[in-house]
Description:
Layout: H1 2-10, E1 14-18, H2 21-24, H3 28-38, E2 42-44, E3 60-63, H4 68-75, E4 80-84, E5 105-110, E6 124-127, H5 130-160, H6 165-177, H7 187-197, E7 203-207, H8 215-218, E8 227-229, H9 238-248, E9 254-259, H10 260-263, H11 269-275, E10 280-286, H12 291-301, H13 318-324, E11 328-332, H14 338-347, E12 352-357
Parallel strand pairs: 1-2, 1-4, 2-3, 4-5, 5-6, 7-8, 7-9, 9-10, 10-12, 11-12
Helix pairs in contact: 1-5, 3-5, 7-14
Amino acid sequence: MQALAARILKAERPVIVTGDEIVKSDALKEAAAFAEALGAPVYQCSTPYGAHFLSENPCFMGALTRLQKQVRETLAPYDLMIVLGADPLRMSVFSEVDPMPDGMSMVQVGLVDWDLAKNYGAEIAVKADVRETLRALVPALKSAGGAALESRAKAGIAALSAKNWTARRKALVEQISKAAAKSPIDPDWLALQLVEAMPDNAILVDEGLTSSRHVTALRAHRDRYGYHALASGGIGWGLPASVGVSLAHPDRPVVCFSGDGSSMYSIQSLWTAANHKLPLNFVIANNGGYRIIKQRLLAFHGDDNYIGMDFIDPPVDFSGVAKSLGLETIKVSDPAQLKGVLSSAFRRPGTKLIEVMVNNAVN
């Protein structure tokens, strides 16, 4: 611990990257205390599939993306990456740009061997439980750093206030709200209304993909079980996962946010939810096809010949499917009605599906 504390204190501009072991070891409070002791910015790893840091903490900056060039630019100002329980820079597709800036050093803490120094060498890799390690590390840092560290931490936190998660959320809400009246419904407006309509104790299971691209920037992580998303990149996980989450947390309402394409892989999960009478709301963003595949075909190959990527002949009636499987169903196409419909559904008992007709623009 002394060696690790000394290496961290040697860094002039440290940055923290957190991952799934924060959830596994129940280390949200300890990770926040660690960040505040350093006054260092914190990013959620590039696969934010859980509540990996307390969003409203003044040190939290948000999640890293899976775009190598963007991640490299984000990390370029720092000289030490402190990784807590994560494979920090997991990307989706190949890029000639390396997301790790030249000269960046790294230290890691975690129990998953596969993630320790997986793609980048670590100066120090501590194979240990994240929470217990931080409980020992924070006092060691404060003891070694003394008044100088305390002063530096206060200055660092103050410098982050204008650009942290909370500040960015405010700006993002203002940006998204400009599309409030668009018809068909703007998917980002749907995501904002869904977040604002959810009860405080609700759990979000997120496989909205393109429609939920801003969800982690809009909904605060406040407990270790409040958010679940897919880590693998494969689709079709969200609906059945939400059934499992609801069974595991019978006293908390669960909202499953899914794309229409994703839901088609495991639509029979709706019957299981109805059969168990779960307090579970499925929100399906219906854009009439596989938008994420279209986006990637266009971005990676410059090809807009979308073969087999539309549900238009015939269109899929998700409300009809859900009704046949025993759910209460609601279809929304008016953006002005969206928040009221979602709020009402989320606060009433029963298993429901809300089908929201969103625009099908690729970009």
